Structure formats: C-alpha cells, structure tokens
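Protocol step 4 of 5: obtain the predicted structure for the target chain.
Materials: sequence only (see below). No template structures provided, no constraints applied. The aim of this step is simply to have a reference model before the mutagenesis design in step 5. Sequence pasted as it appears in the construct record:
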Amino acid sequence: MTTSTDELDAVIAQCIELCGKDAERLPAEGQLQELRRLLEEYQCRMTPTAEDCRTNRRWAGQLQQLAERILRVPVNKVPPSTISLALLILAEGIQIFGVDWFRDNVQLLVLTAHMNTVELRLLLDKPEAIPPESFAAFCSTLEFCIQCVETADFVPDEPALQLAKNIGEAVNFVVEFWTDCAQYNINLSNEVNACIYRLTICVVAVTGQNMIRPELFKKAAIMLVRECTRQLNSKQLQTSRHILTVLDEITDALRGNEDVKQELSDLMNRLHI
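Step 4 output (structure tokens):
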C-alpha cells in the first residue's frame, strides 16, 4: 500500500484531535499502532534532509504534541501499553527527523529520556519475555539521547544534567542486567544480546568509560568479547566489527584477565586486526 504524506497527516490530526478534547481521553491503541506503521513506512520510503524537517515543521510538531500529551498524563490514568506506543512513535520520529527535531522542545527530550528509562526497566523485569522489536527501539532512543548530550548545541546545562542522570541510570541498569543474566545462566534472545552489545559500545565510544561503573565495565568487557564472537560466528561481520571502536577500553578493562584477553586476541585475528 502506498502511503502519502497526506494520509499520514490525516492520521496524526485525528489522534491529536482526540487528545485535545479531554486531557484524560487518549487515542485508541489501534490508531496509535496504525500511526506507528505509517511512520515505519514513511521512514523506509523517504530519507528527509534537515531542510525537509524544517519544511515539515508543522507535521513534526504535531507528532511531538501527540506523544507529549500522552506522556504527561499521570501514569495511573493511562494504560502502560499506550505509554509504550507513545515512546515507540517518538522512536520513529527520531529516526526520521534526527537531533534537530528537539531543538524547540528540549523538555520533551528530557521527558522522553526519563520515560524511556522507565520503559526499559519494565521490559527487563521479565527477561524471558523481552519483545525484541520494542527493546531495540528503546535502546535506539537511549543511544540517541547519549548523542544529544554529547553533541547537541541547543541543550542548556540544567536539562543536560537531567538527561545525563537518566541516561546514566538506564545504561548502568541495562548493562548490569546483561552481566547478571550471564552470571545466573538466564538465556536472552540473540536479538536482545545484540541490542545490548551495540548500546554498550555506543556508550563507551561516545563517552569513554565514564558513564559505566568501573567494576561493571570489567564484566561488560567480557560480555562484549563473547557477544562479538557470537556475532562473527553468525556471519554478522558488520555488527561484530563495532567492537573495534572501543578496543583500547576493553583491553584496559581486561588487564589481569588472561583467559578473556586470549579470547580477545583470537577474535582480533579472526577480524584480521
């Protein structure tokens, strides 16, 4: 089915209208799911430039307004699944419009980071039932927030501190969850392992080792080596090579751990480094 911008605008307008009638009256989940589907299709079919983002500012603003209205409703008055859908819609918007999307609404960026952290905690509470697609979207939003803190020129100091606090909490929680699962032999899906692998590498590549607690990163370094090996065994060469961006940090963290250092050496040989 061909999706036009007009069709997408109509769905967004309908959802916003329902939100605007009453602070407690939210769009039906079916409408939000359809909106997300349209955004996914839009993203697949188009690659907007920064100029496109400015041209479609009303459209981009409507999307933010919809998500923000949902996220600002008291949590006891909105179904958890609706909050999840709002965050997934924001994740699609982030992929379409990039960092500049939040230039005029930094508080929504802070709110998104906070609610995204809460959502990640809820998902990881049931490790055997983590939905890979949603988890990947929330990890992607977390990576985006990290990039904003480090590179965005429009985030003032106070919101930046709020962002950093939420991001640090989320990152350490996710990484500790990953290492605990390995320690207690809790099996995670390949998709979830790959998401945490990419997230951990993104954190270290962008911020160094500062964001992850030192003792936790020592455990995470082992996980990175072993997940990279699994990716390589699965012929996922591009994903496995992500580790090269944080090789120095991993080597430092593994100092004194000769067994895993040998695993890393073998891995580098396989990657022809």
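Step 4 remarks: The chain has a mean pLDDT of 87. Residues 1-91 form one domain.
Proceed to step 5.
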